Structure formats: C-alpha cells, structure tokens
Amino acid sequence: MSVSDKSEVKKSGGFGETLSVVVQALVLALIIRTLLFQPFSIPSGSMRPTLLEGDYLFVSKFSYGYSHFSLPFSPDIFSGRIWASEPKRGDIVVFKLPSDPKIDYIKRVVGLPGDRIQMRQGVLYINDVPVKREKIGEINNPDVTEQNRPVDVYRETLPNGVSYDTLELSPNSIGDDTRVFEVPAGHYFMMGDNRDNSLDSRFTVGYVPFENLVGRANVIFFSIAGGASPLELWRWPSELRLSRLLTSVNSEPPLKKLEAE
After folding, report:
1. Residue 101 placed within a domain
2. pLDDT-based confidence at residue 156 (cuts at 50, 70, 90)
3. Structural domain of residue 114, as residue ranges?
4. Do residues 66 and 164 lie in contact, with contact meaning Cβ atoms separated by under 8 Å?
5. More confident residue, 253 or 242
6. Among 46, 63, 67, 70, which one carries the catalytic annotation?
7. Residue 154 belongs to a domain
8. 46 tagged catalytic
9. HEC profile for the chain?
10. pLDDT bracket for residue 153 (50, 70, 90)
C-alpha cells in the first residue's frame, strides 16, 4: 500500500496578507525610530561649519536613555529618563526647546551641570579657564560659510580633548561677551559652532534639562546643497555633496577635510 502525499502549498497573496506585512513594517519602523535611530534634517546654519543646511542625520536615541520626548508626539506619560546616560562635553545633541518642546534644536554641549560658562572677547571660558582656541585659517566657500567672502576659522579643544571648528563671522558680535552662566543640576549649556549666528544657551534657549535631550547626532547619511529637496533627483548632479555622505559627525573638523580635497 502506498501513502499518497496530500500536502499542499498555501497560495500567498491577498489583501489580508499584504496588510499584515505593511503593519509589521510600520511597527518595526516605529520601534527603530523610537528606540534606536531617528532621522533629522538641518534647517539652519547655526552649526556651520560642522553641519550644513541640507544635511540629513541619524540621531542615536539610546545614547542618553529615554524620556517621554523619545516617543512620537512626546506624550507626557512619565518623567525623568530610563536607562539614563549623561552626555559628554562636546557631544552634538538634538533636544527639545525648553520654551516650546514641539521644536527640535541641535547644538553642541559645552557646559555640564555645575559648570560656570562665560564668553570673553570671543573666547569660551569653562569654570574660569579659557578653552584652547587657535586660528587655523579661512574658509572661502559660501556653501560652508553662507558668506560671499573668506571667513576666519578657529579650532577649539575642550578640556576632555574634543576638538571642532568654529566660524567667526564678526570680531565683535553680541555673543562674544556674556555674563557668567552657572549651569543648574540636571541641565546643560548648548552652543552652536557658528558662534556669531547661533541662537543658543547664551540667549533665549537657556539651560536645557536632561529630560529634553532626544539623542546624539552620529552620521550624515545624505546631504544636498542649494535648498534642494532630496526628491528633486534632477538637482543631484549639481547639488549633491558626495564628500559628506555617510560621514561621522564626530570625524575630523571640516577645514581639515577641505584641505585634503
């Protein structure tokens, strides 16, 4: 007696299965966006020359733990942070604006809780000690500086050894001399690398609560100049910044890159 094989292959397809795949993909994307990485675009020039308008970044959501601002739409369902890890001096951070948490800002952490921060004649002082600052040259590239002239570039090195370039658009700007800011516990002092064109903790941004941190900027995955949209494929040949694609935000400073190219 033979045994016949009556097994069948189930036909795939159909609306229900398609819907299931779509829902699973959306849930996976939501988990990645909430817990791992979230894309952000740079809308302003406050972080020039490190970040340019038209840069698209991946921000690691897990770097500092999770607050309710880590969730889509920021529902106020818990306070504080889960699995908290404090930012390091020099980190480039996306955070919710304290005065309006619907708005995302991106700046560099220069002041930690308990620090005394002050600008004196364009020099950053941390706890009454000047941060190492040296003029290293000029950038004459409007795409980098947003200016149709050469712009002085200074390299700062923070006490923990983190180095980065800053622009000096004017030798006597309003933010070059400030009062002493005493950073409260649980807060951070943020500044833009484009020191003369950055609305940051020296001004109306103020001290940023730890809870407001969204994540640390890590990688530039796309970059396009001229105010072009990534969807405008016909502008890619002239506006795409190939040298910035898939580069680390914390790699060597921009002037070094320009000198090497």
Report:
1. yes
2. very high
3. 28-260
4. no
5. 242
6. 46
7. yes
8. yes
9. CCCCCCCCCCCCCCHHHHHHHHHHHHHHHHHHHHHHEEEEECCCCCCCCCCCCCEEEEEECCECEECHHHCCCCCCCCCCCECCCCCCCCCEEEEEECCEEEEEEEEEEEECCCCEEEEECCEEEECCEECEEEEEEEECCHHHHCCCCCEEEEEEECCCCCEEEEEECCCCCCCCCCCCEECCCCEEEEECCECCCCCCCCCCCCCEEHHHEEEEEEEEEEEECCCCCCCCHHHHHHHECHHHCCEECCCCCHHHHHHHC
10. very high
Active site residue 85: no
pLDDT in tens, 1-36: 444 554 444 455 577 777 777 766 666 666 666 667
- Please state, in angstroms and rounded to a whole number, the distance separating the CA atoms of residues 78 and 229: 37
**Residues 107, 198, 201, 223: which is the catalytic one?**
107
CATH code for the domain of 217? 2.10.109.10
Residue 100 covered by a domain: yes
Indicate the pTM of the whole model.
Answer: 0.85
Residue 32 lies in a domain: yes
User: Are 169 and 98 spatial neighbours (Cβ–Cβ below 8 Å)?
Assistant: no
**Nearest alpha-carbon partner for 31 in 83, 72, 69:** 72
pLDDT band at 135 (very low <50, low <70, confident <90, very high): very high
- How does pLDDT run across 51-88, given as a tens digit for each residue? 999 999 999 999 999 999 887 778 888 888 999 899 99
